[in-house]
Specification:
The complex is a heterodimer of chains A (about 180) and B (about 500).
Chain A: H1 3-11, H2 16-37, H3 40-57, H4 67-85, H5 92-103, H6 118-130, H7 134-144, H8 150-157, H9 161-182
Helix pairs in contact in A: 1-2, 2-3, 2-4, 3-4, 7-9, 8-9
Chain B: H1 3-9, H2 15-20, H3 39-58, H4 60-63, H5 88-97, E1 98-100, H6 114-133, H7 144-157, H8 160-170, H9 175-189, E2 191-193, E3 196-207, H10 214-223, E4 226-231, H11 236-249, H12 255-258, E5 267-280, E6 285-295, E7 298-307, E8 311-315, E9 319-325, E10 331-337, H13 343-346, H14 350-356, E11 367-370, E12 374-375, E13 385-386, E14 391-394, E15 399-401, E16 403-410, H15 412-417, E17 443-455, E18 459-471, E19 488-493, E20 499-505
Helix pairs in contact in B: 5-11, 7-8, 7-9
Classes of the chains: A mainly alpha (about 180), B alpha+beta (about 500).
């Protein structure tokens, strides 16, 4: 069943929509969540919460052309929320690693205490990554959206860990320059 | 605003970019078979394979000589990497890149040494515990032998502390001992009787842009039976030859996993070590009946098969094991943890590894039962009962489901945990015996193993391949295809190298 038909089921408030989504995207959603939480039970809960939230958000949302991304973003947000607030999961060190990396992208003249609009930031990052090569963009998204480790990225793309780390380091420097130039932060 | 906010805001990334990055991994490709959730069997079977592979090898530990009941046919050809079924084209491709080829001995060297076996057992216990303890609840199959052979070759091509750390993991005092052990393992185990076989193969894939010590390649060929190839890793044919080699050594059983395998364009050395095992049960299994397998992912209804032949058992404090013999090619031990204990928990049990490393453990006694009197038809049709042989041995029965699954392991971290660190650090890694170039640049990028096991009512097949990628850690290169699908610069250069025109293409 294509995404448009699935969204129509949601719009018709047909509970079959949840079954179809679970069949078509359940495993992948579980994978996205598990990579972040590293806990099978938690990822199971996040995926179930994702179905529920999708049920509440469609309508008004109608993600006919981007249902997969729509679901991924929900499950990512839920999983990230869990690892930040659930210390049992012991993922704090990994979150700290990622946040430290991202803070390297904040231009030096910016005040870290400044209020910032998340949408403005995301739009700027989107402009930045869309100008990157296909490979670099994928690596960036794997690291900061899917929250993969550098070795997982290396394995996924069949290259070395060192290469991925080098690439990410350079992209962070480029993003910092880009944000400075765009005066985003 | 802080890094955590930024991490959360990444949820606003472009939908297409998010989906595009959800690419299938190049090498991580698991078969669907494991999803039936038979993790208990997975742990048990992984352990069984381990036993199965080393069984013939360590069999001679107690009685001073290995099992010679199985006749071993060594290939007479000097080229192990080409099977009889290889096409001429495949052969040609491999030959193009070949730098060194092993020459096989005419007969098997069956000398064994208890010290060597103990060292291998220690290594086996440590690495198996590490590797199989991870990924709780998943099916896993790992070959310590495949990793061992690759570790030994890695020790051979390295020097100084890099080598010593590898030798320590193998529990070998020096490179000579490691070389002897690897060779004796190879010679004592390699067999090929058609359907029943244990084929070991090693190879090195070198970057032709570098200079390598031919004398070392010759040692690898003579003592590790390793083929060496040299070529340009960006050359598609070289990658094809590499894939062909991997496929040939594993009878195509890992093709799903190895489909995307290609030589990293930045690689200097790729080292591969394979184990290919196949054996038929001494007595096959009979079809049983449907039953429920209680896996970690839930209950699954499946067919269970009952043993028809001789099965021995071993009862440990926390487990029970059943061993089923294969025709002249070892056996498979199925090890079931006690109720309430997972296979991963059982891996911490000392008795388990004592049992697994023991070629001839103290099997449970067999029951002697009284037979019913047998009626024999006599030629004169007088129906006399016979009272001879009124007792018989009652063998335990084993009921098992059929399994077929694949595992992929990234072994670098496990090796690091066991003490190999210098090989992964370009500033410390020393590969000078193989090449004098690239000092301070070379390091091991990854160590991967793909393995598959199939156990059915007829026998067991298992294959594994361990690969090491050693590179220079240069800028990332994902493939050798350049697509001009965005603005680019163009330069026209003369024969002498003089730039004649330089331009930028922004729009088409």
């Amino acid at each position: 069943m294509n995404d448009g038909d699935i969204v129509n089921l949601f719009l018709d408030r047909d509970e079959k929509a949840l079954r179809v989504v679970a069949d078509q995207y359940g495993k992948r959603l579980h994978g996205v969540s598990f990579r972040i939480t590293r806990d099978r039970e938690t990822s199971e809960e996040c995926v179930n919460d994702t179905y529920l939230e999708a049920w509440h958000r469609i309508p008004p949302s109608e993600p006919r052309n981007y249902l997969k991304a729509f679901l991924y973003k929900i499950v990512r947000a839920k999983s990230l929320n869990r690892i930040i607030h659930d210390h049992r999961l012991k993922r704090q060190a990994y979150v700290d690693e990622l946040t430290t990396e991202l803070e390297q992208c904040i231009p030096s003249k910016s005040n870290i205490e400044d209020e910032m609009d998340g949408k403005v930031f995301a739009d700027a990052v989107n402009r930045f990554i869309l100008a990157l090569s296909d490979e670099k963009r994928k690596v960036f998204v794997r690291r900061y959206f899917y929250m993969d480790t550098s070795s997982q990225i290396a394995e996924r793309f069949g290259c070395s860990d060192n290469k991925v780390r080098t690439m990410l380091h350079r992209m962070r420097q480029e993003l910092k320059s880009f944000l400075e130039k765009e005066e985003i932060l | 605003m802080n890094g955590k906010d930024m991490l959360e805001w990444m949820n606003g990334l472009d939908d297409k970019a998010v989906i595009d990055a959800d690419v299938t991994p190049v090498r991580v490709k698991k078969r669907n078979g494991w999803k039936i959730g038979i993790s208990v069997a997975a742990g048990v079977l992984a352990v069984a394979l381990l036993t199965y592979i080393i069984y013939p090898y360590i069999k001679g530990k107690k009685n001073g000589k290995p099992d010679i009941s199985q006749t071993t046919d060594f290939p007479q050809s000097s080229d192990t990497s080409i099977s009889d079924t290889s096409t001429a084209i495949e052969t040609q491709i491999l030959k193009i890149f070949e730098m060194a080829a092993p020459v096989y001995p005419a007969s098997r060297n069956i000398q064994q040494n208890c010290e060597k076996m103990d060292a291998y057992a220690k290594y086996c216990t440590e690495i198996t515990r590490k590797v199989l303890s991870d990924g709780v609840g998943e099916n896993k199959i790992f070959s310590p032998l495949s990793l061992y052979m690759s570790l030994s070759m890695a020790a051979e091509i390295s020097d100084g502390n890099t080598r010593q750390q590898i030798l320590d993991v193998m529990h070998q005092p020096d490179i000579k001992a490691a070389r002897n052990t690897a060779k004796s393992i190879w010679l004592a185990n390699y067999m090929n009787n058609g359907e029943d076989k244990l084929l070991l193969a090693n190879s090195l894939w070198l970057n032709s842009g570098w200079t390598f010590e031919q004398s070392l390649l010759d040692i690898l060929a003579s003592d590790y039976f390793a083929s060496s190839f040299s070529g340009d890793p960006t050359d598609a044919d070289y990658s094809i030859a590499y894939r062909e080699w991997l496929s040939e050594q594993t009878d195509g059983l890992l093709d799903d996993n190895l489909d995307g395998a290609q030589l990293d364009p930045a690689m200097l050395i790729t080292l591969a070590s394979s184990v290919n095992f196949s054996g038929s049960w001494e007595s096959s299994f009979g079809y049983g009946e449907e039953g429920i397998f209680h896996g970690t992912s839930g209950d699954v209804t499946t067919c269970f098969y009952n043993s028809l032949g001789r099965v021995r058992t071993y009862t440990g404090e926390n487990f029970i094991s059943a061993v089923v013999k294969l025709k002249g090619n070892g056996s498979v031990r199925f090890i079931l943890p006690e109720e309430g204990m997972t296979p991963e928990q059982l891996l911490q049990d000392e008795e388990l590894f004592d049992f697994m490393n023991d070629a001839d453990p103290n099997w449970d006694p067999l029951k002697i039962v009284e037979k019913e009197p047998q009626h024999t038809d006599y030629p004169n049709h007088l129906d006399y009962p016979t009272y001879e042989n009124l007792t018989e041995i009652e063998y335990p029965t084993l009921t098992m489901p059929l399994v077929d699954f694949t595992s992929s392991f990234y072994l670098k971290d496990y090796c690091r945990e066991l003490g190999i660190t210098d090989a992964f650090d370009p500033s410390c890694a020393d590969f000078s015996p193989l090449t004098k170039q690239g000092k301070g640049q070379l390091s091991v990028d990854s160590i991967n193993q793909d393995a598959r096991i199939i156990i059915d009512e007829f026998g067991c097949k298992a294959v594994a391949i361990t690969t090491w990628y050693i590179g220079t850690g240069d800028d990332p290169i994902f493939d050798n295809k350049i697509v001009l699908d965005r603005p680019y610069i163009v330069e026209v250069v003369s024969e002498s190298g003089l730039p004649l025109f330089v331009g930028i293409v922004n729009n088409i």
